[in-house]
C-alpha cells in the first residue's frame, strides 16, 4: 500500500523526467460515443472497462464543428484545435493550381518508402498548428520519442505531427507497412523484418465468427480488393495493427528514455466495415466486442513492459457515423441515400440555366457531400467574383435538397449568425484549397447510394468517446460537457509542456487526481456519480497490477 502512495507523488511528474514513461492515445476510427454504453454490460475486464470502471470517462463529448471526417478528426485530437486552427478541412480537397483533388497529407516533395508506387509521398505539411507530440519534442529538446500508426496514412501522419520520429501505415494492396521520406530514407530493419516475415498471411483465408460461432465474414482474397479491404473490414485488421504496435514499442524502446514518449494508435477497421453495414448491425456489435478483448491484451502487454503506473492512456474517436438510412426509415425517421453524381449534374444544370443559358458548364468540380468545390475558372470567365459565385452555388444546393449553406468567403470574414449551428461551420472553416461551399444537410441524409457515411454537424457524427486512464486521473464518470479539443491540452498541462500552438480546448481539471498538497483545497465538482476516489487496488484490473502495474 505504501508503494502506491509513493507513486501518486509522481503522477503529476513531467515529461522532462519521464513521468509517465509513455502516453498512448487510442483513436478508434468511426467509433460513436454511445457504443460504450450500448455494449457496456458485455465488455470484459481490462479493455474498455479500464476506462469505464477505473478511468476518467466523459460520455458527453461532441465535436463542435461540421466537417466530421477522418483527417480533420485526427488533426483536432492532437492539435487541440478545430479546422479553423489546424487547417485540415477534409480528407481531400480541390487544388486550383494543380487542377485536381489532393489528399490532406499529399506532398510531392517526398516519396513513399517500402512500396513501389508512382503516387506522391506524404507528410504533415498541411497542418497549420503544432501537435501535442510536437510540443513534447520541443520541450525535451528531442529526447521524447513520438510515433503514429494506422492502416490509413492520414491517421498515422497527422497525429505524429511535424516532429514525429516515425509514422507508419499499410500499403492497401499487400498490407506491408510503409512510411515516407519525410521521416527517413529507408524502413528500419525491424519493420523490414516484420514485412519480410509475411505476417499478413496468417490473417488471410480466415473466418470471422461472432460469440455464438456464426460466420460473419471471411478474409479470402478477392480480385477487386486488397489486404486493406478484405482484412481491414474485420477484427483481424485490428489484430494486425496491434501486433505492429507491440513490435514498435519493443524495437523503438518506447518508455525507456529520459523523457516521456508518445504513441498514437489509430484503429481503422471499425470505419472500413462501418461504412458498409452501419452502426446498428450485428457485425458492428461483434467488432466492438472483439476490439474490447484486443485492447485488453494490448494493455496487458504495456503492463508487462512498463508497468501501468508508468503509462497514461487516452481513448477517443475521429468521428461517429450516421445510421443506415434504411434503418432510420423503418422507424419513420426521414432519411435518404443520395446519388452524388446525379446531384452534381443537377447543380451544374441549374447554374448553367441561370448563368449561361443554352450552354452547359461545370461550375461544380467536386461534390463531397455536403461540401462542394467550386470551379473558379468557370466563374472567372463570366467575370463573377468569388463571393457571388459561392452564393450562387449555395442557392443551387438548396434547390437540390440542402437545408442551407455557408460559403468560404462568408466564413473567412466570420459573417455568420450567432447560432450554435453557425459556430460549427466557423470551426470547420480552413483556407485550404480553392473556392468552396459547405452545405447544411438534412439529418440522416448521406451522400452515398449504399451504406452510410459521416460528414454532418449532427450528434450521430459528432458524438465520440473521451476517456483517460493513469495515476494522474481520478476515476469516475464526468457529465460535464467535453470536446475532443480538450484531449491535447489536458495531456500537455499534465506533462508540464506548452499546449499546441493553435489549441483552444480546456484542461479537464475535474478529472485530475489531486496532489497531496492540493487535497485540502479541492472541492467536489458537478460530476456524476459524486463518489469518493476508489481505493488504490481499484485503479487498475488485478491482471495489470500483478504484472508490475503499481510500482
Biggest sheet strand order reads: 6-10-9-8-13-1-14-21-2-22
CATH architectural group of the largest domain: 3-Layer(aba) Sandwich
Count of helical stretches: 21
Overall pLDDT, averaged?
A: 92
Shape: globular
Structural class: alpha/beta
The CATH superfamily of the largest domain is known as: Alkaline Phosphatase, subunit A
Considering DSSP H and I runs of 4 or more, what fraction of the residues is helical? 25-40%
The first-level CATH class of the largest domain is given as Alpha Beta
Low-pLDDT windows of residues: 1-11, 517-551
Distance between the termini: 10 Å
Query: How many distinct folded domains?
Result: 2
Description:
- The chain is α/β, with parallel strands linked by helices and 551 residues long.
- The chain folds into 2 domains: 2-65 and 104-320 and 463-478 and 491-549, 3-Layer(aba) Sandwich (Alkaline Phosphatase, subunit A), CATH 3.40.720.10; 336-446, 2-Layer Sandwich (Gyrase A, domain 2), CATH 3.30.1360.150.
- Helix content is 34%, strand content 15%.
- The protein is built from 21 helices and 22 strands.
- The strands form 6 sheets. The protein has a 10-stranded mixed β-sheet, sandwiched between helices.
- A hairpin with a 6-residue loop joins strand 9 (166-170) and strand 10 (177-180).
- Helix 4 runs parallel beside helix 7 (153-160) and helix 10 packs parallel to helix 12.
- The longest helix is centred in the middle third of the chain and has 25 residues, at 282-306.
- The chain is globular and about 70 Å long.
- The relative contact order is 0.19.
Amino acid at each position: 500500500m505504501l508503494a502506491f502512495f509513493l507513486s501518486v507523488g509522481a503522477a503529476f511528474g513531467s515529461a522532462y523526467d519521464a513521468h509517465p514513461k509513455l502516453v498512448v492515445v487510442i483513436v478508434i476510427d468511426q467509433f460513436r460515443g454511445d457504443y460504450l454504453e450500448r455494449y457496456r454490460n458485455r465488455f470484459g475486464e481490462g479493455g474498455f472497462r479500464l476506462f469505464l470502471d477505473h478511468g476518467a470517462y466523459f460520455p458527453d463529448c461532441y465535436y463542435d464543428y461540421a466537417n466530421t471526417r477522418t483527417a480533420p478528426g485526427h488533426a483536432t485530437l492532437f492539435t487541440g484545435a478545430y479546422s479553423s486552427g489546424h487547417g485540415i478541412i477534409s480528407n481531400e480537397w480541390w487544388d486550383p493550381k494543380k487542377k485536381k483533388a489532393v489528399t490532406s497529407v499529399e506532398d510531392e516533395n517526398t516519396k513513399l518508402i517500402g512500396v513501389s508506387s508512382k503516387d506522391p509521398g506524404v507528410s504533415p505539411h498541411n497542418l497549420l498548428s503544432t501537435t501535442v507530440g510536437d510540443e513534447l519534442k520541443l520541450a525535451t529538446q528531442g529526447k521524447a520519442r513520438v510515433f503514429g500508426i494506422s492502416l490509413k496514412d492520414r491517421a498515422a501522419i497527422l497525429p505524429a505531427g511535424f516532429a514525429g520520429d516515425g509514422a507508419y501505415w499499410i500499403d492497401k494492396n499487400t498490407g506491408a507497412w510503409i512510411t515516407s521520406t519525410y521521416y527517413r530514407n529507408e524502413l528500419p530493419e525491424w519493420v523490414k523484418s516484420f514485412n519480410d516475415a509475411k505476417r499478413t498471411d496468417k490473417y488471410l483465408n480466415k473466418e470471422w465468427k461472432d460469440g455464438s460461432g456464426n460466420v460473419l465474414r471471411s478474409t479470402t482474397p478477392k480480385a477487386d480488393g486488397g489486404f486493406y479491404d478484405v482484412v481491414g473490414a474485420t477484427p483481424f485488421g485490428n489484430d494486425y495493427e496491434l501486433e505492429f504496435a507491440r513490435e514498435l514499442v519493443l524495437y523503438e524502446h518506447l518508455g525507456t528514455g529520459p523523457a516521456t514518449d508518445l504513441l498514437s494508435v489509430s484503429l481503422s477497421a471499425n470505419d472500413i466495415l462501418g461504412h458498409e453495414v452501419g452502426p446498428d448491425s450485428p457485425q458492428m456489435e461483434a467488432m466492438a466486442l472483439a476490439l474490447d478483448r484486443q485492447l485488453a491484451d494490448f494493455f496487458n502487454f504495456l503492463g508487462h513492459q512498463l508497468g501501468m503506473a508508468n503509462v497514461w492512456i487516452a481513448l477517443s474517436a475521429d468521428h461517429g457515423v450516421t445510421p443506415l438510412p434504411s434503418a432510420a426509415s423503418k422507424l419513420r425517421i426521414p432519411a435518404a441515400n443520395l446519388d452524388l453524381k446525379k446531384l452534381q449534374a443537377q447543380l451544374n444544370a441549374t447554374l448553367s440555366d441561370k448563368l449561361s443559358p443554352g450552354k452547359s458548364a461545370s461550375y461544380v468540380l467536386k461534390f463531397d457531400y455536403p461540401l462542394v468545390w467550386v470551379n473558379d475558372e468557370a466563374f472567372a470567365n463570366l467575370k463573377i467574383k468569388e463571393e457571388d459565385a459561392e452564393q450562387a452555388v449555395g442557392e443551387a444546393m438548396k434547390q437540390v435538397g440542402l437545408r442551407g449553406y455557408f460559403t468560404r468567403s462568408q466564413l473567412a470574414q466570420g459573417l455568420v449568425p450567432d447560432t450554435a449551428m453557425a459556430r460549427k461551420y466557423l470551426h470547420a472553416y480552413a483556407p485550404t484549397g480553392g473556392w468552396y461551399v459547405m452545405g447544411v444537410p438534412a439529418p440522416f441524409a448521406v451522400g452515398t447510394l449504399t451504406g452510410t457515411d459521416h460528414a454532418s454537424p449532427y450528434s450521430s457524427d459528432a458524438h465520440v468517446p473521451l476517456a483517460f486512464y493513469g495515476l494522474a486521473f481520478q476515476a469516475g464518470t464526468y457529465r460535464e460537457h467535453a470536446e475532443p479539443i480538450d484531449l491535447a491540452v489536458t495531456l500537455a498541462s499534465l506533462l508540464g509542456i506548452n499546449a499546441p500552438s493553435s489549441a483552444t480546448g480546456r484542461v479537464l481539471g475535474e478529472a485530475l487526481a489531486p496532489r497531496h498538497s492540493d487535497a485540502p483545497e479541492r472541492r467536489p465538482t458537478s460530476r456524476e456519480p459524486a463518489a469518493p476516489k476508489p481505493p488504490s487496488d481499484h485503479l487498475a484490473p488485478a491482471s495489470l497490477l500483478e504484472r508490475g502495474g503499481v510500482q
